[in-house]
Amino acid sequence: MTAIQRRDAIFQAVSSAQQPLSATALAQRFSVSRQVIVNDIALLRAAGNHISATPRGYLAEQEPQGLLRQVACVHDAAGTAAELNAMVDCGCTVLDVIVEHPIYGQLTAPLQITSRYDVQQFVMKMKDSEALPLSMLTEGVHLHTLICPSEEIYLHLKDTLRAMGILLNEMQ
Question: What's the number of CA atoms in the CB half-sphere (13 Å) around residue 9?
Answer without folding.
Answer: 12
